[in-house]
Structure formats: C-alpha cells, structure tokens
Write the structure tokens for this entry.
Amino acid sequence: MINSKLPDVGVTIFTVMSRLATETRAINLGQGFPDFDPDAGLLAQVDAAMAAGHNQYAPMPGIPALRAAIATKTQALYGAAYDPETEITVTSGATQALMTAILAVAGTGDEVIVLEPNYDSYVPAIRLAGAAPVAVQLLPPTPEAPGYRPDWDAVRRAITPRTRALVINFPHNPTGAVLDDGDLDELERILEGTGVVLISDEVYEHIVFDGRRHASIARRPALAARSFLISSFGKTFHTTGWKIGYCCAPAALSVEFRKIHQFMVFAVSTPMQYALAAFLKDPRHYLELPAFYQAKRDRLEAGLQQTRFRTLPCPGTYFLLADYSAISDAPESEFARWLTTEHGVAVIPIAAFHADPDAPASNRQLVRFCFAKKDSTLDAALERLQRV
C-alpha cells in the first residue's frame, strides 16, 4: 500500500468544473484559459524554429536568447537587472517554478506563509517539501472596501523563527486584487531583519487595468534581493498549453532553484523557447495586453449588471468575482454546480481556494468568472445568465 504524501488532496476544482461543463455542454467561464488562439506571428515563429532544427534538448536553464529577452523586459519594466546567465531560469510553466522555489527553501519543520484564498498548488507544494503551510486571510470585501486586500499586520504576526518563505500572488488569483507602492513599503518593513524568502507569483503582471502600474517586487531592490519572481508566458501570450514560465532570482537563490529544476524537468520545449525569444523583441505584444483584457472585463461586467449577480471590483487578472446572494443562499460549491447544470455556465467557487472549502467563513456567496474568452463566448454566457 502507498502511504500518500497528500492524503487530503483530490482532483482540483478546475478539473471538476471543466469536466462538468463538458458533460453538460455548458459555457466554461470557470477554468482560466483563453478560448482563442495566440498571435499568428508567434505560431509562425514556432514553425520556423522547428524547421531550423531546434528540436532537441535546450540548455537546462533555458536557451540564452530567451533568458536575455526576459532580462531586457524585466529591466525595461521594473528597473531590475537580472543576469541572464546566473539569475534567470526558464521553467515548465509557473506551477513548476513555484514548486521548485518552495522545495529549494523549505523543509521538514519549516513554515511557509500563504495568503488565503490562494491558488491551489501552493499548499500541496509546501506539504511535499515537508513544511507546514500557514494561512493568513486576505481582508474580505466590505461596503466601504468592496475588494479583497492584504492584511499586512496579520502577515507580520504570522512570522515565527520557523518561517522560511512568504508566498504572494499579485495580481491575485482568484480575487483580482493588486498591490500598490504602499503595499511594497509594508512588505519591506515586515521582512527587514528576517531570513524570510519572498516567492512572488506574478503571472498576471501584464493584466492590470484602469491605468494602474503593476507593483512588481522587482521594483524594490531590497525585496528583489530576497525573492523568487515567477511569471508565465501562458498568461501573457494566450499559450497556457505550452506550459512555459520563468523564475528570476539572485544568483545564490537561483543556484538552489536550478539544483531542483534540473531533476524535475531538466529543460522545457526548445522550439517554443526560440519562438518566444523572437516574439519578445516587440514589446507591444505585452504592453497592449491591459487594454485588450480591460475591454473584455468591461464587456462581462456590463452584461452581469443586467443580471441578479453583483460584481466586485476587478483591478487585475482575467477573473471577475460576482456575489450571487440575491439568487441563492446555497454554499458556493453547490451554487457553482447548479449554475453549470441548470443554466449552462460554469464558474469556480471562491471557497475552493481555501483550506476548508466547507467552512462558513470560506463561503461568502462569491463565484469567479473568467473573461479570457472570445466576445461571442462572453455574450452567449451573458444571455444565459440573464435568465437566472
């Protein structure tokens, strides 16, 4: 018999809801993937790379051209200089990068702080490292402050001598919350004088709205010096199925990161790396992303205002939260299944991003809509939602 290392873990909510959407032929606004193709120019670069013979193993940390392009982009956007040779590693998606970073710094008896609700890979990765996850709740929406936001005082109280890392994710999945300069100030004050490593999941770095500037930890030298900064080309270039991300970290942290990376995946898709390196030469491909997704956010938000759902602010990511309390008092998971089966629109319950999805405190009658979809998909879903 196998002694499971993750005895409490089952199939993820994303798999469950996507399967239910397929079975019921519902419109899937649950799982966070686009239903449109990436740029034709990027696909052409993949064909060109394959035709040029780039079909064998890439160097373990990633091809030099892509690492150099990542360094150039990060310097231009955030003023942070990462050495492509020793401080940037190309990974098999951001999820692999996150697990690798956690395994690199945490072990038996250690603690890793996560902000809850949180993306579902963090806690299993912490447990696989032998460490204990410590959940700090985001401040929930109130009439005065209708969006989620970090509780930095609670984070400060959660740090103990056993704390090895703090995992943050902004723009935040699932709530859409973003940081500002004041938050970075708080992070600097909290971590100063500690040995805590910061793991910053910034996969939605280019999806921020209403003229906001992404508050990357790379903007602050004191934070960057103790951080793994992780991002994803899947989110930026609509290629979630390629599973290519990257990690920027100081050389000493990157050494430990690469020790694990090389035995976890060794390297990632070679032709895709060459294609991305070429595509990154034109910054418009990511600089225009906020406007592209803001139009979709506004379309979904305007449509939901014609329904019984009440939308919450969405300053970042391609997810929009909505309150369904005017429709039902059912727990979030139950409501999400009902909406999928009875009205043909799949969503994700926010309770699923908590350690205990069934706890009353985890159920605030909120569901997450993904608007990384064709306008026709959003319009068809809205037509069904208006009948709820």
